[in-house]
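User: My instructor asked us to take a sequence, write out its structure as tokens, and then describe one feature of it. I'm not sure where to start. Here is the sequence I was given:
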Amino acid sequence: MKIRIKNILLFLLSFIVVSCSLQHADFKAKEIYKSNNLIITQISENAFIHTSFKQTNDFGNVPCNGLVVKNNHETIVFDTPINYKSSEELIQWINETLHSKINAIVPTHFHDDSMGGLQAFHQKNIPSYAYTKTIELARENNFTTPENSFKDSIILKLGNEKVITKFFGEGHTKDNVVGYFPSENILFGGCLLKELEASKGYLGDANTSSWSETVEKVKKEYPNVKIVIPGHGEYGDKKLLDYTITLFKTH
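Assistant: Let's start with the prediction itself. The structure tokens for your sequence are:
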């Protein structure tokens, strides 16, 4: 009888584990907030893409992605929305809808589609962390400068989870880093990574000869990645890594 009860308990436990993993795998992304300046899309249980819009001469009105990751009523934000106003809107949404504190804002490079709204975060006393080269380039261009620097990588605490930010090499810019959320295997590639079928985009600060090699290193570092988010356009899986590698491969 004891053996039967034990078997039943084991069966129930395995059923619960399988059900949970299936739920995670089958998560249906949904747009959960939309205004004239900002769109927020939930892509997993604890991850949200924020999208704001940059008007450009060459590429029109460009959607710019960032990422919010959450654990235990704490969040970390990768890349600010494009300007002060949309960044204020995102901060308010995180505080009032997610009922969460923002532990950090992490710009992935020095362009305004990554840190154009940094001042809004600083005014709310939200600490910012950036690669040393990003801080250097921000100062050179008289941009709002991130407060805390890291040399090659940094691990930030998020509730009882962690979030990794790391520099792998040059590509879109000399300072582009990527963010990784290990608990959900989500990679925020920023402008280092391209959506499928994208063009090479803006190359004014790029190192096109190193770009593929840099993304190869990212791919090798995170073999279990499930969701990949580019700086612009549609997110997907590790195919975005392969597409970007091929796009910039020099023969």
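For the description part of your assignment, you could build on this observation: The chain is about 30% helix and 30% strand. Try explaining in your own words what that tells you about the chain.
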